[in-house]
Design brief:
The chain has about 290 residues and is an alpha+beta fold. It has helices spanning about 105-115, 125-135, 140-155, 175-190, 200-205, 210-220, 225-240, 245-255, 260-270, 275-280; strands at about 5, 15-25, 30, 35-45, 45-50, 55, 60-65, 70-75, 85-90, 120, 160-165. The chain is globular and about 55 Å long. It contains ten helices and eleven strands. A hairpin with a 2-residue loop joins strand 5 (about 45-50) and strand 6. The chain has a six-stranded antiparallel sheet with strand order 2-9-4-7-10-11, with helices on one face. Strands 6-5-8 form a three-stranded antiparallel sheet, with helices on one face. The longest helix is centred in the last third of the chain and has 19 residues, at about 225-240.
């Protein structure tokens, strides 16, 4: 499946799209669309890719994505059971041109502006909005529209939002780049635990090394090495939280070639050492 501009149709009976997705797993499908998207992961875990952000996700992940922001959720292999998500997609003017700029919706208007980098919601906001989103796809008519506006109002007032993509990230997917990035990212996801060379990656993208470096930085917002370090750190985070394996074993199993490099890269990305990260996210160990 190629990365693409996703075409969204709400049909004549609705002003926005709201659906429940259930799959055996969420595959890597790097895509973008002009609509804003609000997604709740009901049941799944893996890695979330939004612009230049790569992070682990799990049940309850709640994210608001701005227009044309490339994204995908990629579930961990080997998970049993179904993977489920609820998502809403709507254009900025889905209620009519200029409606979102009305004084009553000023905070929602600012929320949609902030969504250009992607926003993740946690805490009380996540719990409250998750409950509402779970039932939104079953509503119809005015009740459905009112429920979405109430959800957006709650998100707009929340202090539990965190941007995902970096400030310098600017979506730069071209049609040819999108296909290359999709093919390349699937390759990197499969191979990130092992050694990946620049020449191998360039060959997968069917580009020379200089052209590959320019394309990758433009579309991913980072170098290949930085991207691989984030992938590997994401793998290590889950192992640190969910297993008792020694840090050194986790470092090598995640694709780092030495422990000191792993510790340095991990601290740079997470602001904590691997051991402190484990303690922080496993309070029951105290």
């Amino acid at each position: 499946m190629k990365a693409r501009i996703e075409r969204i149709s709400t049909g004549d009976a609705a002003s926005f799209l709201c659906r429940r997705r259930t799959d055996a797993r969420f595959g890597f499908t790097w895509h973008f669309h002009p609509e804003i998207e609000l997604t709740l992961i009901v049941r799944s875990r893996g890695r979330r890719f939004v612009g230049d952000s790569i992070e682990p996700y799990e049940d309850g992940d709640l994210v608001l994505l701005g227009p044309d922001l490339p994204h995908t959720w990629h579930s961990d292999p080997g998970q049993k059971g179904r993977h489920e998500a609820v998502f809403c997609q709507f254009s900025r003017d889905f209620l009519g041109a200029g409606f979102i700029q009305s004084p009553e919706l000023a905070m929602v208007d600012r929320l949609l502006e902030r969504s250009s980098r992607g926003l993740r919601f946690t805490g009380r906001t996540q719990k409250a909005v998750a409950r509402r989103l779970e039932g939104l796809d079953r509503l119809q008519g005015l009740g459905r529209l009112a429920a979405l506006l109430e959800i957006l109002d709650e998100l707009a007032r929340s202090r539990d939002a965190r941007p995902l993509s970096g400030r310098r990230y600017v979506p730069g997917l071209r049609r040819g780049d999108a296909e290359r990035i999709d093919r390349l990212c699937r390759f990197l996801n499969e191979r990130c635990r092992g050694r990946v060379t620049l020449s191998e990656a360039a060959r997968v993208a069917h580009l020379s090394i200089p052209a590959f470096c320019r394309m990758f930085r433009r579309t991913a917002g980072k170098t290949l090495v930085e991207y691989l370090n984030e992938l590997r750190t994401g793998l290590a985070c889950r192992e640190l939280i969910e297993t008792e394996r020694p840090v050194s074993d986790i470092a090598f199993a995640s694709g780092f070639n030495n422990l000191s490099n792993f510790n340095r890269r991990f601290r740079a990305l997470k602001g904590l050492s691997p051991r402190d990260y484990r303690r922080a996210f496993r309070p029951e160990d105290h």
